[in-house]
TonB-dependent receptor
Amino acid sequence: MQRLADVAGSVYVINQEDIRRSGASTLPEVLRLAPNLSVARADAAQYAISARGFASVLANKILVLIDGRTIYSPLFSGVFWEVQDLMLEDIERIEVLSGAGGTLYGSNAVNGVINIITRAAADTIGSVVKVDAGTSERTLTARHGGGTAADMPWRLYAKRYEADSLRRENGALLGDPLLQRSQAGFRTDRTREQDLMTLQGDIYEGKVDQLPSARTFAGANLLGRWTREHGAGRRTQLQAYWDRTERDQPGTVRDRLDTFDVEVQQTSRPAEGHDLLLGAGYRLQYDRTENIAPAALRFVPSDRRLRLGTVYAQDEFGILPGVRMTLGLKAEHNTYTGLEWLPTARLAWQARPGHLLWASASRAVRTPSRIDREVFLATLPLGGTEFDSEVAKVFELGYRAQPRASVSYAVTLFHHDFERLRSVDLRPGGAAFGNSHEAHLHGIETRGSWRIADAWRLQASYAHQRMEVGTRSGSVVAPGTSAQLGDDPRNRARVSLGWDLSPQMEVDLAARYVGHTPAQQVPAYTAVDFRWGWRVQPGLELSLTVRNLNDPHHAEWGPAGFRAEVPRSVMVKAVWRL
């Protein structure tokens, strides 16, 4: 595993202690901790989460993984965030990469990667019960782990989450309650000499109240992984998983997706100073749609098999004292566009211990989704049969430093050139998706951390970005669609302070500023969150969290008049550890 200080990229890690002290009850709220992510709440169930632009509840340029399992939908190449949940206490860390990650992670890792890694079963032996009760949401979570670290440790968990409706700007309720979700799962690990074997799985169901009837979802997954440490820097890993998701979107479509994925990876040191990574994988997805209202919207064909094959290689090696180069290439073959090439080159210079200057150049693609190719509105094909992959060329320059044990900071400059972005083209036969938009994005990401004293920790971050969107010469696109592509806040900032009042008591205060969005004209806002925690005894922890302390409500996403307002909320949490 590479140390964060040595990574030639813009990476932020959210660890378990960060999650605990955030007071968050859901995964999207935890992701607000990452300064290189834009997180906006659209309603009680949906979030617009992105990195470096193209924010939307249907964002399609960021890849999300949970323990190596990709959780995006091929319907639109994005994530349904109301479906994703975990027992937050079981998360070891969340690695958030902003920038292209195509060589290691594949297509759709265009602007970023969210890699969620859960704790080993040996680290969760014992019982935990957590109750969250608040003004707008409630959570009940239980987990029990058994076995021993030397034997075959295991854990079981279950979680129930409910969120009340938010109100629109005009005061109207969106639904009551809006989101109900139940989930359960397990994990077991076995270590035998050089081998580590893992088996884990989850099952879930939920509903979101809406008119004319509730939106429902359900699913299950099962993942197995075998890892062998050969010694001398050589390691082999084989992973396979099955994932089923079912979704009923009233008035449009019922969708059932089965995903089968297998990947093999090997790291080695074939020569002095070289760290070589080789890998190959194959994914089969069987997507079945039932067109509920074919006169309005339908997928043609209704059922589709999607295949994805990959091979990749990456070598990191020294070229001068303190200077290392990383070269990587992934060849990926998909059902719609055939062969795609995803190269990357990174250069890192450690001028002195604790200081790293790095630069990178990468190519990433967002391959077509079923909506891009196969959706019909009434009898007109909106999906373009010739829709091609979107392409991003990403250039970055960064500096990361830890001049003292108590101080660290990082700065990243970035520039993205986008080609063949999705557009709604006006053609003689009607409107259809095309690749007529292009864009240029540039900006800066900064963050720093200062351990003022043993009991005080200060963190701050700032991100600025600008996007220029244009249309390919000779194309005619629907009015207003260009502005929607760049509808992201240009400025984001966050400051947080953690204070340990005593070994048993702690206080956390965080303030974040988010600039306005131009097209939807969502006003800029500042939100202040407060948390007080008290370890009553070794096995019992109580906390009080107040969100939006400074403001009774504010909007974060959506068109004027229809957007929801996120209210001030109060949450009381109790955690028992047995």
Summary: The first helix runs from residue 16 to 22.
